[in-house]
Write a structure and sequence with these properties.
Length: about 450
């Protein structure tokens, strides 16, 4: 995809006269590429119409950077299409919410329920899982196994065949136990069948969920719109989670799901494991959709904000891909100073949303300072190691003692380190373009 779009834009910038014909050719090329990424035909056509309204041919002809203008217009349009205009219902910690998951069989509901519960549990919530899938044999066992692994309370039955009854019993029980996030996993079918939708409707009516999340497999292709719409027509879908983004699919179906449900994407699934789950971030997602690579904006930013003399060192570290605790320390230091590098670091996917959530800067800063105090109690060997296993239990205890913090907090910091190291490692072997060498798309 990236290739054909860059080719289209390249052709355009080679053309001496930028007229409507050239712009059309270029947009047609982009259209073909987006269709290959599973973006629905109607959406692509709408986008094309909007772009034509936005892009001013006179601007293009006047020698402005044409590629940049079109690139930016396409990028912005796609971002806009992923924003339904209103946020989804957001559960509040300490206040009971019921969240129901729906989607076809195999889309990743059960896995995602656990990820969602685990994500909140790590932030101090009291989640619980209810298995209302009585359709598939083994469904309860699967949920039970996941829940046990994550130490999350669960409810279900091997005997009862009425999903509504189980759902109601489970929700009641966990309300009594003061759980603040009661998650109801439901069954799916291979196809969109009347029986499935009737069941969804009944479970929803009986449990009165505060939020219904539609789970969609990113690889379903052009079927996304109809599927999302079918679910929306039976239950009040309020948010979307797209799974299997670690696979080949670029996830263009997400645009369809947003359009069909008028609900935002809130998380994406990036693997089979419990922690392979990310808060949805529009810009990196669109970059990926366009084949721009997650890092092109990032590299632009580096050249823009990092002083020239500091660039080689930072870029060298990035391309080596080895994220040590010392690098983390330095990054936190510049984040706290809000220096230029912090702007770069916070653009890494998963860093700004998780480490420095908007509106909670004070809290986050205190956390970073706490982490740095603990790192101050580490030896050079520990700070420069690329093997987190080095910091074993006895070292953690020593670090905790030395910094006057709890071992639990050292463990928490190491988890954060591992998460950031994983993000950072994606930079490994990256060919670093010099300033001005960035390709457009
Ligand atoms: P359900 O039928 O909707 O409940 O789907 P499951 O949760 O049972 O998931 C179906 C399969 O997809 C399982 O093998 C999961 O491990 C796998 N799966 C779910 N989410 C992801 C993901 O984000 N990435 C990958 N690679 N696999 C996933
Ligand atoms: Mg399931």
């Amino acid at each position: 995809l990236g290739g054909s779009i860059s080719r289209a834009l390249q052709q355009m910038s080679n053309a001496t006269v930028i007229d409507e014909k050239v712009l059309n050719e270029c947009l047609n090329e982009i259209t073909r590429a987006l269709l290959q990424s599973d973006v629905q035909f109607k959406l692509v056509r709408d986008m094309q119409t909007n772009i034509k309204k936005i892009v001013n041919l006179d601007d293009l002809a006047a020698g402005h950077n044409k590629r940049k203008i079109i690139q930016q217009a396409v990028f912005n349009e796609l971002c806009k299409m992923l924003d339904p205009g209103k946020p989804s219902f957001t559960p509040k910690k300490g206040k009971t919410s019921v969240v129901m998951f729906v989607g076809l069989q195999g889309s990743g509901k059960t896995t995602t329920c656990t990820k969602y519960a685990y994500y909140h549990q790590k932030k101090g919530w009291k989640p619980a899982l209810v298995c209302a899938d009585t359709f598939r044999a083994g469904a309860f066992d699967q949920l039970k196994q996941n829940a046990t692994k994550a130490k999350i309370p669960f409810y279900g039955s091997y005997m009862e065949s009425d999903p509504v009854k189980i759902a109601v019993e489970g929700v009641e029980r966990f309300k009594k136990e003061n759980c603040d996030l009661i998650i109801v996993d439901t069954s799916g079918r291979h196809k969109q069948e009347a029986a499935l939708f009737e069941e969804m409707r009944q479970v929803s009516e009986a449990t009165k969920p505060d939020l219904v999340i539609f789970v969609m497999d990113s690889s379903i292709g052009q079927a996304a719109f109809d599927q999302a719409q079918a679910f929306k027509q039976s239950v009040a879908v309020g948010a979307v989670i797209v799974t299997k983004m670690d696979g080949h699919a670029k996830g263009g179906g997400a645009l369809s799901a947003v359009a069909a449900t008028k609900s935002p994407v809130i998380f994406i699934g990036t693997g089979e494991h419990m922690d392979e789950f990310e808060v949805f971030d529009v810009k990196p997602f669109v970059s990926r959709l366009l084949g721009m690579g997650d890092w092109s904006g990032f590299m632009d930013k580096i050249h823009e904000v990092v002083p020239m003399d500091q660039q080689p060192e930072l870029l060298q570290k990035l391309s080596e891909g080895n994220f040590t605790l010392r690098i983390m320390y330095e990054q936190f230091q510049s984040l706290l100073k809000m220096g230029p590098i912090s702007q770069v670091f916070s653009m890494l996917p998963g860093v700004s949303a998780e480490l420095m959530p908007k509106g909670r800067e004070k809290e986050s800063q205190a956390k970073l300072k706490r982490y740095m105090t603990m790192m101050d109690s580490m030896t050079d060997e520990e700070l420069d190691s690329t093997n987190p296993k080095l910091i074993n239990e006895s070292r953690m205890m020593r670090i905790a003692r030395g910094s006057g913090r709890r071992v639990q907090e050292v463990m928490e910091m190491m988890e954060e380190y591992k998460r950031l190291a994983k993000v950072w490692s994606k930079m490994k072997g990256l060919k670093i373009p010099k300033k001005g060498e960035m390709s457009a798309l």
